[in-house]
Amino acid sequence: MNTLFAILAAGAMAGSSFTLSSPDFRDGGTLGMTYVFNGMACTGKNVSPALHWSGAPAGTKSFALTVWDPDAPVRGGWWHWVLIDMPASANSLPEGAGSTKPSAAPAGSVEGTTSFGKPGYGGPCPPVGSGAHHYIFTLYALDETQVAGATSKTNGPGLQALMAKHVLASTKLTGRFGRP
């Protein structure tokens, strides 16, 4: 976990003008059922939300995105989405880019492996009664066009290790969801 906090701290110091937002939920707000997993007793539509960003630092050559639930009752949390090698020209992802319309992700992007054991977006599905979990969407501005060594088999912790020395800045957006 120290790597994650070091990356986030470095990104926070690199420039506060780098921002991530969504028209589908506000920071700290609740994720709607459209974005919730469909399976494992969850009945959402499993659609990835639209995301927009701006203010990437000079020298950005690519972006990577992760969605992580630190509240999951498993060691290291739960990784809901790993998206690698988005070109520096990208500034958004449309709704469904990680699930229902993966071809809508920027050309050249690679989806890594989630904690569900497969690529693509896997929405929230916390255990019943565990309270509202935090789903942290983190966008990384990187100084390399492709994360060296990353493939579709790369998971969240693996991606963090591979890109640790290449993060120019990061920005995050947190959604919440719980099941009573």
What structural keywords apply?
disordered N terminus, 30% strand, 180 residues, globular, three-stranded antiparallel β-sheet, 10 strands, Phosphatidylethanolamine-binding Protein, mainly beta, five-stranded antiparallel β-sheet, single chain
SS content category: mainly beta
Shape: globular
Strand order of the largest sheet: 8-6-5-9-10
- Specify Rg, calculated over alpha carbons: 15 Å
Share of helix, binned: 10-25%
Task: Kindly estimate the percentage of residues that lie in beta strands according to DSSP.
Answer: 25-35%
CATH architecture grouping: Alpha-Beta Complex
* Average predicted local confidence, pLDDT: 92
The poorly predicted ranges are: 1-15
How far is the N terminus from the C terminus? 28 Å
CATH superfamily: PEBP-like
Number of domains: 1
Largest sheet: 5 strands, antiparallel
CATH fold field value: Phosphatidylethanolamine-binding Protein
Report the CATH C-level class.
Answer: Alpha Beta
> Please, how many helices?
2
Summarize the structure.
The chain is mostly beta strands and 180 residues long. The protein contains two helices and ten strands.
Could you characterize the architecture of this molecule?
This protein is 12% helix and 30% strand. The chain has 180 residues and is mainly β. It has a single domain (2-177), classed as Phosphatidylethanolamine-binding Protein, CATH 3.90.280.10. A 5-stranded antiparallel sheet has the order 8-6-5-9-10, covered by helices on one side. The protein has a 3-stranded antiparallel sheet with strand order 1-4-7, with no helix packed on it. A hairpin with a 2-residue loop joins strand 2 (38-39) and strand 3 (42-43). It starts with a helix and ends with a strand. Mean pLDDT is 92; it is low at 1-15.
